[in-house]
Write a structure and sequence with these properties.
coiled coil; alpha+beta; four-stranded mixed beta sheet; Immunoglobulin-like
């Protein structure tokens, strides 16, 4: 166990197990087995990424991943651990670590170089078969032949192809999703631009239609909502002014018709020689 070595593992999926020796393990006996690693989020940030630790199937700890993505844990010998890496909207991955070591080995020398591994979480796209991730992505345990901890190669060979297919499909979906997002972004921006052009030209109805089209793409965007509110206020003001003008026009028309009727009556009275009555009618027309 005292030899310094590096493991190069032959599989290329998201959990990479690399063993290295730390100088602190040379100077004193180790009472726990240490693991180090890093979490990577594909097409996302590390915000709200959680590592949950189970010891012999019982939850013992849960921690938020730091901004660096790095983590480290010291695990007691003689237990089965499960590390669960999760983030809402992303596939959850698990790593199994068995710290059982024969008692005679531990009593002789408990210095084991720690493992460092990486876990990559990708978005859990709708329609993906993620059943393979119900199983641990890797199993780490003591290997008698190596007299050290190593990953379980038999287990790896069983799930390697399934993991590779799932991750390839996830990346394909990610590329499709990104292409769709970019297309939607272009359509949204075009609708906003058309809305703005019509708004400046005071073509408010056309502008409103364009902003509504933008909202069908991005329903939560505030800008088109605000512009529609402005348009509604402007249209309401225009309608109020139009109604007022119509009322004035109707009043003027009624007055004009009344005047014409009175003048016609007065002229008829005048022509018939009824001058007194005609005078009264003409006076009413004033």
């Amino acid at each position: 166990m005292s030899n310094i070595r590096t493991f190069l593992f032959p599989y290329a999926f998201s959990i990479l197990l690399l063993s290295f020796l730390s100088s602190s393990f040379v100077s004193q006996a180790q009472q726990k087995y240490s693991i180090f690693g890093k979490v990577k989020i594909e097409n996302g940030s590390l915000d709200n990424t959680i590592i949950t630790i189970f010891k012999n199937a019982v939850k013992t700890d849960s921690k938020m991943v730091e901004n660096s993505g790095k983590f480290n844990f010291d695990l007691e010998f003689g237990n089965d651990y499960m590390l669960v890496f999760s983030k809402e909207g992303f596939v959850t991955k698990k790593v199994s670590i068995s710290t059982f070591v024969p008692a005679d080995i531990l009593s002789r020398d408990s210095q084991f170089p720690p493992f460092k591994f990486m876990v990559s979480l990708f978005p859990a796209y709708k329609g993906l078969d993620l059943s393979i991730f119900d199983q641990p992505m890797g199993m780490i345990m003591y290997d008698k032949e190596l007299d050290d901890f190593d990953y379980d190669r038999d287990y790896d060979s069983q799930i390697r192809d399934a993991i590779r297919r799932a991750e390839e499909e996830a990346r394909r979906r990610a590329a499709e999703f990104e292409a769709q997002r970019l297309a939607q972004e272009r359509t949204f921006n075009a609708a906003i631009q058309l809305g703005d052009i019509n708004f400046r030209a005071k073509k408010y109805e056309d502008s409103k239609i364009a902003y509504k089209n933008a909202l069908t793409i991005k329903p939560k965007e505030e800008y088109p909502k605000t512009q529609i509110q402005k348009i509604d206020a402007l249209l309401a003001s225009q309608q109020a002014e139009a109604d007022k003008a119509a009322q004035l026009a109707a009043a003027e028309k009624a007055l004009s018709e009344k005047y014409a009727a009175i003048i016609k009556l007065a002229d008829s009275q005048f022509n018939s020689g009824d001058y007194t009555t005609a005078k009264t009618s003409y006076t009413d027309a004033l």
